[in-house]
Structures are given as structure tokens and as C-alpha cells.
Amino acid sequence: MSRRAMILAAGRGERMRPLTDQTPKPLLKVAGHPLIEHQIRRLAAAGWRDIVINLGWKGEQIRQALGDGSELGVALRYSEEGWPALETGGGIHHALPLLGQQPFLVVNGDVWCEADFDRLRLADDDLACLLLVDNPDHNADGDFALQQGRVRNQGGPRYTFSGIGLYHPELFRDSPAGAWPLAPRLREAAEQQRLAGIHHAGPWLDVGTPERLHQLNARLSGAEQ
User: Fold this and answer.
1) For 105-127, what is the mean pLDDT?
2) What's residue 56's pLDDT?
3) Which fold has domain 4-224?
4) Which of 75, 132, 177, 191 could cross-link 159 (Cys pair, CB 3.0–4.6 Å)?
5) pLDDT of residue 221
6) Cis amide prior to 157 (ω within 30 degrees)
7) Band of pLDDT at residue 225, cut at 50, 70 and 90
8) Poorest-pLDDT segment among 44-53, 60-69, 203-212
């Protein structure tokens, strides 16, 4: 399997305003460093050093801040979307020429997670393997059920999709150009019994609001003291 990864970083960050009015959300500082830098370092430490980042809102700032990635020990390439951005599904589809023909890892640009990415694996016919986490207060009903390593739309126990997954390019076959969300296609894969999943019980946070950004900053700053 290839060791290519993608960080989704093109969004506007509406819930994070006004912090994102002039700064893209991935560049907001956490413990003195941009959130996306923490993600890149975690990916690199796990052996994922060929990384694609999609650019949308204020994307030129991300390119300027990170460059080719050499200072972080990775090789960065960029998928330009312009504005408005292409949402999750459209953004990944647009980046496929940079991601290749082998399964690739995708990480939302606004999550913090200490999972072992290598636990994500595809069986022969799987289209994706999702990392699922315990339901936070803001998503109490969860997104999917997980039963013996298979992700289902119905039933239980139910968990929240972390925003981290291993995807086979086949998942995006015949998908349209332009903006579209990924979730409906994942639900189709679950209906086809081609969606795997693992449960991560450790630290995870959707850094989608100023309050959660402050929470993560306090946690990591305390850990570094």
C-alpha cells in the first residue's frame, strides 16, 4: 500500500469566525504552532510523508507557511480548488491525480486525534475504512453503527465518524466534478457492505469552534510544560 495522505484544509471555518475571517482554520495556532503543522508531524511520525493538501479559503497562506514541507520532514503537494471550495467528496475527487491508484489516508484539517493510523485496513472488496470515535456532546446520536469491524447505517452500537479514513480510489469512480459531500457516498458503500471501520477510544477532538480550539490549546500547552 502507498503511504500517501491528504489533509482537507480548504473550508471556510464558519463556526470558527471571526478567527477565520483573515486566517484559514488550519493555520490557527495550538500550543504555539499551526494546527496543520501538528497534523503533519503526527503523519510523518507514523510514516506518511507524501502529503497532499487541498487549498480553498485563504489557501495561499497555507502554501506560504508550509512550502514544500521539507522543514517538517515531508513532501507536500497542493490541490488548488479556488473559492468556493469543493466540499469533502469533491475535494478528494479533484485531488485524485495527486493521490495515485493505491489506497490513501485522508484526515480532516480540523480534527485532533492520537490514533494509530496503521490500524486502518481494507479487505479485498472494501472501498474505505473509517476511524470511528465515541460520540461527543455535539453529535450525541453518532453517524454510523460498527458491528464486527463493518460499518452499518442502522443498528448499534453507534459512533461518530472522526474525519479520518483510508480510501480506495474506486470509492470515487464515476463521481462528478464540482462540489459534493462525502457522507452520502460512504453510506452507499455501507449499504453495499464494502465499508470497514475501527473504533478509537483515545483522544479525539473536532476543533470546529473557538471554545474547542481553546480547550485543545490549554491541553497541549499544559502537556508541554
Assistant:
1) 94
2) 95
3) Spore Coat Polysaccharide Biosynthesis Protein SpsA; Chain A (3.90.550)
4) 132
5) 79
6) yes
7) very low
8) 203-212
Do 92 and 108 touch, CB atoms closer than 8 A?
no
Q: 151: which 3 cell numbers?
A: 460499518
Between CA 34 and CA 217 the distance in angstroms is 11
Cα(13)–Cα(23) distance, rounded to whole angstroms? 10
Q: 3-state SS string over the chain?
A: CCCEEEEECCCCCHHHCCCCCCCCHHHCEECCEEHHHHHHHHHHHCCCCEEEEEECCCHHHHHHHHCCCHHHCCEEEEEECCCCCCHHHHHHHHHHHHHCCCCEEEEECCEEECCCHHHCCCCCCCCEEEEEECCCHHHCCCCEEEECCEEECCCCCEEEEEEEEEECHHHHCCCCCCCCCCHHHHHHHHHCCCEEEEEECCCEEECCCHHHHHHHHHHHHHHHC
- pTM of the entire predicted model: 0.94
Angle between helix axes 59-66 and 35-45 (nearest 10 degrees) is 50
Q: What is the β-pairing status of strands 111-113 and 204-206?
A: antiparallel
* Torsion from C-alpha of 155, 147, 117, 178, nearest 10 degrees: -40
Contact, 24 vs 122, CB < 8 A? no
